[in-house]
Amino acid sequence: MTSTDTHCPYCALQCGMRLRPVRPDRPGGPAVEVGERPEFPVNRGALCGKGRSAAAVLGRSVRLTEPLVRDVRTGTLRPAAWDEALDRAARGLTEAGERYGRDAVGVFGGGGLTNEKAYLLGKFARVALRTPHIDYNGRFCMSSAAAGQRAAFGLDRGLPFPLEDVARTGCLLLAGSNLADTMPPALRYLRAQQEAGGRLIVVDPRRTRTAEGADLHLRPAPGTDLALALALLHLVIVEGRVDEAFVAARTTGYAHARAAAMAHWPERAERITGVPVSAMRQAVAMFCDAPSGMVLTARGSEQHSKGTDTVGAWINLCLATGRAGRPLSGYGCLTGQGNGQGGREHGQKADQLPGYRSLTDPGARAHVAGVWGVDPDSLPGPGRSAYELLDSLGTDGGVRALLLMGSNPVVSAPHASHVTERLGALDHLVVCDVVRSETAELADVVLPTAQWAEEDGTMTNLEGRVILRQAAVAPPPGVRTDLAVLHALAARLGRDTGFPAAAGEVFDELRAASAGGQADYAGISYDRIRAEDGVFWPCPAPEHPGTPRLFLDRFATADGRARFADVSHRPAAEEPDARYPLRLTTGRVLAQYQSGAQTRRTPELRRAAPGPFVELHPRLAARLGIADGDPVVVTSRRGRVVAPAVVTGAIRPDTVFMPFHWAGPGRANTLTNPALDPVSRMPEFKVCAVRVEKAA
Ligand SMILES: Nc1nc2c(c(=O)[nH]1)N[C@H]1C(S)=C(S)[C@@H](COP(=O)(O)OP(=O)(O)OC[C@H]3O[C@@H](n4cnc5c(=O)[nH]c(N)nc54)[C@H](O)[C@@H]3O)O[C@H]1N2
Ligand SMILES: Nc1nc2c(c(=O)[nH]1)N[C@H]1C(S)=C(S)[C@@H](COP(=O)(O)OP(=O)(O)OC[C@H]3O[C@@H](n4cnc5c(=O)[nH]c(N)nc54)[C@H](O)[C@@H]3O)O[C@H]1N2
Ligand code: SF4
Ligand SMILES: [Mo]
């Protein structure tokens, strides 16, 4: 009985933790407890409440422990043996392909899955199902930042530097991140930065716990960061703060970016954003006076129908001031899910092959097809993006049979009532999950799978550090790993080989498939990860040290220069009007995680954050006759929800906020707008127009 070093199952910080075996405190309770692992550098033993309570979801009592199939007579889910469930799952996928063509079969994955699972899921779609239609919930997460970084730097890795650099930068501008609630142990890097004399600027419409600790808080209306970032660049230019030498030596495209910024004068941005020009000037002074600087964005700035352009505008600010490609400086994205980074590198994204290769690049196709032992021409092309895939379900020419692994779109997808309807219109839905989620309730076959502390595998954290998840307990009887499920389904689809169920074997294949690609894992091994507290990609060979810091000599573009984005402000897809006069923005609370499938089943988290709510400003509440705790109705063009009011001066009077962690009548995503960014295909989670009334 020894303890096991592993990592938290939840967010992208991937805090290190030590699991100790214990006798379950009740029948069906977890057989390990979470302890500290002070040596792991990212969190040095610190954990948030979600990490500390993570073992609760290992217990049998909250888990799916046997496969379920929909009974043809009663229409309800009933327990089934594994063989029956797998046969039925495979048959439904095959039949849809035979009846409507291979494009009618789809796969939806998740950024919480290990690299091994994401890799095998992508291979399963392209080789076993031979469908182009695979995408994942990471599309809802960092896709705008990924698109913006690729355009500017030729490469996308959440942070191009380790978190320890954040603690040493001169000025940190944090746009649309509430890190104090979404990655609490990372707050120590911000405090260290300020203690060392650095300045912190937070850009958020709400006065969050993160904003409270800032030296300067800018509060733009949701959906207006692009105007703000352009106006900040305008001020940088007119105040003579451009680093002309850096721009000349290491960038291209400045002339267009400069012209666009000059058209966004600060007074115009003040009208759009509500941020006073004086505060913009203060921000520019703080950012440019410091010896180094970083801009980090998270979902607040990115989850918009102009998220890619907004990221481009933040990157422009870094490039013009020479805050990129230099020590302690640069643009970065705080990725979100446990494996949000690795999940998009190894082939579950609609347009990508392992190693961050492009599915449209003939050389990339040939390399990966070689590793897979298939003809390159047999690999399908790019498929639909996450929302477009969900929107197509059950339609003519759309996907008719779907395999879903590691996501709960009934709660988390935009315009969720529509997505629920589409899921219901499928001929066949197979869901692999650890709990009976709201989406599993709609399935024809539910396969109970193992999770973090029950299996080995790698995850890639927000720094690009590849870390190792290690099994500490056996899964409950009746539960199989996701890899074993893919292995069994592939065999039923005629692929007896090529889908190993052992994580180490999959990882070795992933290394080969990624070799020579941008996200090159060829030199990484489980042993190295153990010995080195993680390895940063790219790491092309066993003797290569890994790459904690990118771009110091050159950017990853063909000519080595970073490219300015040519962007102008545009309104949100839906602006307030007479019928829907307020802006709704959505996000997270400290004690719940995502669709809540896991954290709503954890007693102490449920107590800490029992249900949805609507934040409104005291002036708005008074005008509407609403008191704190009153049930309020929020209506958008897509639907209406009811939840209690939280009256708080922390929000703008023209904006209301809802967390999205709950299903039912208070589901925030009943309201949200699925308008997509033209490049990243990110939905506009962070702003739509609503009406608020006191409930009758
Ligand atoms: N407790 C908890 N932690 C989590 C998660 C969780 O569900 N719960 N999920 C994980 C995942 S997957 C992710 S992606 C991350 C997300 O981490 P964050 O991005 O930090 O989380 P959010 O709450 O979605 O959004 C952050 C802030 O954006 C602000 N915002 C809204 N609209 C705008 C805007 O137009 N501009 C700007 N500048 N800000 C705006 C909101 O007020 C909010 O405070 O968190 C990870 N960590
Ligand atoms: N309104 C609004 N909506 C949003 C957002 C927002 O800010 N506002 N944010 C978006 C973002 S950033 C994200 S990342 C998405 C996330 O939303 P979802 O994709 O729904 O993410 P989770 O709730 O983490 O869902 C993971 C599911 O997989 C299961 N699971 C966990 N581990 C495993 C495993 O190892 N194997 C299998 N098979 N299953 C597993 C869990 O039990 C859960 O049911 O939500 C998006 N939705
Ligand atoms: S910050 Fe993220 S990784 Fe760390 S304990 Fe909390 S949820 Fe887990
Ligand atoms: Mo996310």
Structural summary, described in words:
This is Molybdopterin oxidoreductase family protein. The chain is of the alpha/beta class and 696 residues long. It is built from 25 helices and 30 strands. It folds into 4 domains: 59 residues, Single Sheet (N-terminal domain of TfIIb), CATH 2.20.25; 240 residues, Rossmann fold, CATH 3.40.50.740; 192 residues, Dimethylsulfoxide Reductase, domain 2 (3-Layer(aba) Sandwich), CATH 3.40.228.10; 113 residues, Barwin-like endoglucanases. Helices cover 31% and strands 18% of the residues. It has a 7-stranded mixed sheet, with helices on one face. The chain has a 6-stranded mixed sheet with strand order 24-26-25-30-23-27. The termini are far apart. The structure holds ligand MGD (2 copies), iron/sulfur cluster and molybdenum atom.
